[in-house]
Amino acid sequence: MVLFSISRSLSSSVRFQNPKVSIVQFSVVSGDILNHLQENSGNVEKTLSTFKGPLDSKFVSGVLHRCYPSQSHTGLRFFIWAGLQSDYRHTPYMYNKACKLFSISQNPKLLFDVIEAYRAERCSVTVKTFKVVLNLYKQAKLADEALLVLRKMPEFGLRADTTMYNLVIRLFCVKGDMNTAETLMKEMGLIDLYPDMITYVEMAKGFCSVGRLDDAFRLFEVMKEHGCLPDKVLYSVLLHGICKFGNMEKALELLDEMEKEGGSCSPNVVTYTSVIQRFCEKGQTLEALEVLNRMEARNCSPNRVTASCLIERFCLEGRLNEAYKLIDKVVKGGGVSYEECYSSLVVSLKRNERTEEAEKLFRKMLDGGLKPDGLACSIMIKELASGGRVVDGYELCDEIEKMGYLTSIDSDLYSLLLVGLCERNHSVEAVKLVKLMLMKKIKLKSPYIDSIVEILKKSRDEELVNHLTENLKSFIPKVIIDSSN
DNA sequence: ATAGGGTTAG
């Protein structure tokens, strides 16, 4: 029976499924290496030193999956080793993957065990080794552990550099522990490492986020003493901090100062937008528009962020005509397109419960060949799907797809539509949607797949059941991978 | 390294 085979394929795929197709490709290249790794787990780096061949993220991720879950130690040592190779560099994505796979946040000790193993086995350890470890803690957002790593370096006769201090300082700033961050910054000076612009920007951001504006401003003096001149980025951080705490007069003074200073301190679109946004939030639309004029007068073009907060504001006040005029004006500046602005307007209208107008504008965009952005599409499709117009939602999805729309809509929406279509027995659309999902490699998340299986069990539509079963079979294993990491 | 509405995929 068809239904039986679905649930059987579901449960067997939980137990036996083998992560990714790439594993197969990679086994051909490196199966030996992996087997060696697993046999001589004590000598990972020595085994790896015999490895010759291209190292890429696919390969690295394949090995990591092989080591999961019982060989975390080996997996991490492989990951660190890979990060040391000159022809390869882990991307943040890969750090994140390793971090999630081996649950570094829950098991921070794993990495200390690796460091201890290096010591016990007299492995060669360099500054770069510690950098890879630090980056793993960065992904895991573990400030204390990252600091311990920094403290371990001298035991290996190594010294941290400015980027490593910056990484740890950043973690403490994010955590809001500005005292430790400050101690670390001072410590840099003691060991002949000078804080750089990145250090100061992080510190300024950190101080602002905990409301220590005076300390943030004091950085101006500290950095100048060290021969590091403040630039627009640092100024912008401080300006943002002042805005956030509501002192708009002081914010405008600082903006003045930046304009007068000029050069590398000259405000840019981020600086102005930050001020405009705060005025909008406070309901001071007039002041926001003055800042807009001011930036345009200085040849600084508003971008999507600038435009969208003003559009949002006009929309909230019901000043739609002015929103349209504003759009014409900012688009002329060249920093933002009609597509982006109208998309923002669609989003704002919907947020202000002017759904019908949002839909009208959205339709107008499609008919005029303007591509709405991901958020606007997601919002409109969701509106249709949850408002009992599932088929319309699907058709909209299909229409957007046919426009060659590359940026994706919220991936949950495909699942939501699929469930809706199945529930209402729209077999033809459901089958088409599944095919689209397969083509776009959209994964079905576990709560949705349960609903689908339930629906199929009850369905008398044999054609639907046959088609979906056939199609779902091929991506159920992927679902299992996704829910496991 | 600065704003933000959730910005590729790996």
TrEMBL record:
UniProt keyword list: Repeat
Pfam families for this protein? PPR, PPR_2
Q: Which domain of life is it from?
A: Eukaryota
Family named by the database record: Belongs to the PPR family. P subfamily.
Q: Which InterPro entries match?
A: PPR_P_subfamily, PPR_rpt, TPR-like_helical_dom_sf
The protein in question is named: Pentatricopeptide repeat-containing protein
PPR repeat copies, ranges: 126-160, 161-195, 196-230, 231-265, 268-302, 338-372
Record the organism: Cannabis sativa (Hemp)
Q: Is Repeat among this UniProt entry's keywords?
A: yes
